[in-house]
Structures are given as structure tokens and as C-alpha cells.
TrEMBL record:
One of its GO terms (cellular component) is membrane. This is UNC93-like protein MFSD11. Belongs to the unc-93 family. Pfam families: UNC-93 (PF05978). It comes from Chloroceryle aenea (American pygmy kingfisher). The keyword Membrane applies. Keywords: Glycoprotein, Membrane, Transmembrane, Transmembrane helix. It is found in: Membrane. SUPFAM superfamilies: MFS general substrate transporter. The keyword Disulfide bond does not apply. InterPro entries: Ion_channel_UNC-93, MFS_trans_sf, UNC-93-like_regulator. It is a multi-pass membrane protein. The chain crosses the membrane at residues 7-26, 46-65, 100-118, 138-158, 170-190, 239-257, 277-298, 310-329, 387-405, 411-432.
Length: 450
């Protein structure tokens, strides 16, 4: 196998592994609150929203230290161990216990930071400047396809059910645990890559994660240096402006990945389909994500129009979705009890409108995330790893805050928060993009005068 084929093989295995793990985890997150409200065990007092808040809070803090862990342990083993913790979290739902539920929430937050840091290193090592766009696209498509399979299973398995029994719960979560473990085992198929750079040449990934020939001390020294660089980078004008946009992606990530599915499952007027519609909603979120990611990934090759039109499309699509959700969903849907809600908003709840909004939420999310990744890669090509660490830090801390207030806030207030932050996040993104375009034009002018 040629070196290029070997690298592409590694990217495909990486994507398939993440597809299996997140098929299990995202499906778990989508149905967690619905399952918990249907528990007959009065000894269990956990909240799916609180669990996700803990996960994203710990994830955010752990992003500051995860490069050091991966530098010492290595990316492959880091991903394997992280995958095991993901599987343990999902397995807790087979026989829920409050202490185990919240304890594994803490561990999976740490594991998530390590997993994504290792993923970034693996993607970087197996790519070059000519293949990074293609490889990122392949990985994104495989990762987002995870939204299909688990939710498709939920849709057919829970068809016609208004209450989730213990047998239903155990069957689903045993299956999801096995799926997660399969993805974890697949990490062992990733083949080691040799460092192909010249002896004196370094990139940001190597600055953080080192290479296999470095001593543990050198790796740790580089990790500490990268940590300091991340802190310094956090206070630059561009990062501060983009942090508002990133904060919005954290809030809407919480909404479409946990809150909206719970809302759909709580609407009694959807009849016997209310629980299976959660799975269908997840599928259409995935359709929007993959469609948007594919289209805008291809459009990124032609930068004539810049990134602003895509972000503008994203915020318009999301505002339309929020407007329709506000009219379609009862206000108390996010915090409804086990019996659900019989309330009506400003129209009789429509299944078609609810699923269409799922598609819009996924499409808008892909608009923001593809363009944020693009502009970070453009602005910080020399310091990409610290920049992306800050991106994950801000996104996850805002997701944690949103999952926390989802326990208490009615739907209208959650939508209002996203509208306000999304509006200002779009403006700050535009500001950074205009400055980046001006800098690129000036650079091109300088080159043409040489």
C-alpha cells in the first residue's frame, strides 16, 4: 500500500470509528431526557440536561490539558481509552443509578477533550496542505452520518409507543453500548505514520503533540509551550470576536442535540408517534448537517464570495427554524413531566413542521461550523492547534451553560437567548471576515508589486 493510500485508509478508519461511537452517543443524548422521565425507579433522580451540562463543563476545562495527555500517551491509545469511557456512560442507562450517571458524566467530559485532541492530531499527521480539505470532508461526512443510524433505529423501534418500558430501554442501550465498543476497537486498525518533515521543520500539531521519536520530557515541554500559546492567543482581537460566534454554536448545539428532541417527545398531540418522532428528528438534523457540510465544503474551494454569505444563510435558516418552533411547540415542552404536555402554542402542533425544523437546525449548524473551521484554519495556519482548542473550549462551556438552564427555562426564553447571541455572533464573524479579506487583498497586492 502506497503512503498516500495508507493515509487515506487511516482517515476512513478514523471517520468510521467516530461514526460508530457517535451513533451511540448522539442517539443517547437525543433520547436521554425522554428515557429518564419514563423511569419507574423512584431511586433515580438524575437529569439528562444536568448530565450534559456536566459533560460539556468538564470537556471545556479539560481542553486546556488534553494536549499534554495525548503527547505522552499517544493519539491511538488516547482514542481507545476515551472510547471505553463513552461506552461506560451509555451502559449506565441499562440499569440507571444516579451516582454512576453523574460520575460517568465527569469522566466522559475528560475523555471527550482527549478524544478530539487526538483526532485532530491523527487528521493532521495523515494529511498535507493538498489533502487536508478532502480528508476533513471525508471525516465530517462519516461523522455526521452517525445521526442517521441510531435515530433510524429509535424511529422504528419506538413506533407507536407512548411510554418507554424497562425492556425497551435496556434493549436500546445494550445495542448502543455494543456499537460504541465496536467503534473503539476499530481505532486499533489505524496504522502508524512516520514523521515526513525535515529535521528542523515543525508544525503546530507537532508543537503540541510532539512525535514518537521525542522523549517524554520534550513532549511535555512542547505541551506546556502550546498551553501558554493558547492562553496568549485567547486575548487576540480576532479570537475574542469569533468567540461570540463560537458561543452561539455551543448554544444551538445544545438545543438541536438534546432539547429539541425532548420537546418533540413531550407533545401529546403528536399521538402515538411522539416518541418515534425523536428518532426521525435526529435523522433530518443529520440530513441538514451532511447536505450543508458537503455543499459548503465544495464551495470553499471557490473563495470568490467569501464566508459571509454562508454564515448569513446559516443565521437566516436558524431564525426561520426558531420562528416555526415558537409557533409549533408548547412553551413547557422542554421541561414537561413524564406525562408530557397537552398545551398548544400558536398553532396545532404539526409533525411535518417539527421535522422540517430539524432539517433547518442541522443545515444552519453546518453553515456556522464549516465557516468557523475555515476562517480559523486561514487565520491561524501556524497555530491551528491552539486556535482550535480555544474554539472547543468556548463552544463546550456555552453548551454546558445551555444544558444547565434547559432544566428551568421555558422554550420561548431558550429561543430568545439563541436569537440574540446568534445575531451578535453573525456580526462579529462578518467583522473578522472583512478584515481577513482586506489582509489577503493587501498581501496579494504586495506580491504583485515584487
Amino acid at each position: 500500500m502506497s503512503p498516500e493510500s495508507k493515509k487515506l485508509f487511516n482517515i476512513i478508519i478514523l471517520g468510521v470509528s467516530f461514526m460508530f461511537i457517535f451513533t451511540a452517543f448522539q442517539t443517547c443524548g437525543n433520547i436521554a431526557q425522554t428515557v429518564i422521565t419514563n423511569l419507574n425507579n423512584t431511586d433515580f433522580h438524575g437529569s439528562g440536561y444536568t448530565s450534559m451540562s456536566i459533560i460539556y463543563g468538564v470537556f471545556s476545562a479539560s481542553n486546556l490539558l488534553s494536549p499534554s495527555v495525548v503527547a505522552i500517551v499517544g493519539p491511538q491509545l488516547s482514542m481507545v481509552v476515551s472510547g471505553i469511557f463513552y461506552s461506560l456512560y451509555i451502559a449506565v442507562f441499562i440499569q440507571p443509578a444516579t451516582w454512576a450517571f453523574y460520575t460517568t458524566s465527569v469522566f466522559i467530559g475528560i475523555a471527550a477533550a482527549v478524544l478530539w485532541t487526538a483526532q485532530g492530531n491523527c487528521l493532521t499527521v495523515n494529511s498535507d496542505e493538498h489533502t487536508i480539505g478532502r480528508n476533513s470532508g471525508v471525516f465530517w461526512a462519516l461523522l455526521q452520518s452517525s445521526l442517521f443510524f441510531g435515530n433510524l433505529y429509535i424511529y422504528f423501534t419506538w413506533q407507536g409507543k407512548t411510554h418507554i418500558s424497562e425492556s425497551d430501554r435496556r434493549t436500546v442501550f445494550i445495542a448502543l453500548t455494543v456499537i460504541s465498543l465496536v467503534g473503539t476497537v476499530l481505532f486499533f486498525l489505524i496504522r502508524k505514520q512516520e514523521d515526513t518533515k525535515a529535521p528542523g521543520e515543525e508544525d503546530s500539531a507537532n508543537e503540541i503533540l510532539g512525535d514518537d521519536l521525542s522523549s517524554a520530557q520534550n513532549k511535555m515541554t512542547r505541551a506546556v509551550a502550546a498551553f501558554k500559546k493558547s492562553i496568549k492567543l485567547s486575548f487576540t482581537k480576532e479570537i475574542l470576536l469569533l468567540s461570540v460566534t463560537t458561543a452561539y454554536t455551543g448554544l444551538e448545539l445544545t438545543f438541536f442535540s438534546g432539547v429539541y428532541g425532548t420537546c418533540i417527545g413531550a407533545v401529546n398531540r403528536f399521538g402515538s408517534e411522539e416518541k418515534s418522532l425523536i428518532g426521525l428528528s435526529g435523522i433530518f438534523i443529520g440530513v441538514g448537517e451532511i447536505l450543508g457540510g458537503g455543499i459548503f465544503g465544495l464551495l470553499s474551494k471557490n473563495s470568490r464570495f467569501g464566508r459571509n454569505p454562508v454564515v448569513m444563510l446559516g443565521i437566516v435558516v436558524h431564525f426561520i427554524a426558531f420562528y416555526l418552533i415558537f409557533f409549533n411547540m408548547p412553551n413547557d415542552a422542554p421541561i414537561a413531566p413524564m406525562e408530557g404536555t397537552n398545551d398548544v402554542a400558536y398553532m396545532i402542533p404539526s409533525k411535518e413542521v417539527a421535522i422540517f425544523c430539524s432539517f433547518l437546525l442541522g443545515l444552519g449548524d453546518s453553515c456556522f461550523n464549516t465557516q468557523l473551521l475555515s476562517i480559523l484554519g486561514f487565520l491561524y495556519s501556524e497555530d491551528s492547534a491552539p486556535a482550535f482548542a480555544i474554539f472547543k473550549f468556548v463552544q463546550s462551556i456555552c453548551a454546558a451553560v445551555a444544558f444547565f438552564y434547559s432544566n428551568y427555562f421555558l422554550l420561548q426564553w431558550q429561543l430568545l437567548i439563541m436569537v440574540v447571541v446568534g445575531f451578535f455572533g453573525t456580526i462579529t464573524f462578518f467583522t473578522v471576515e472583512w478584515e481577513a479579506a482586506a489582509a489577503l487583498a493587501a498581501r496579494s497586492s504586495d506580491y504583485s508589486s515584487i
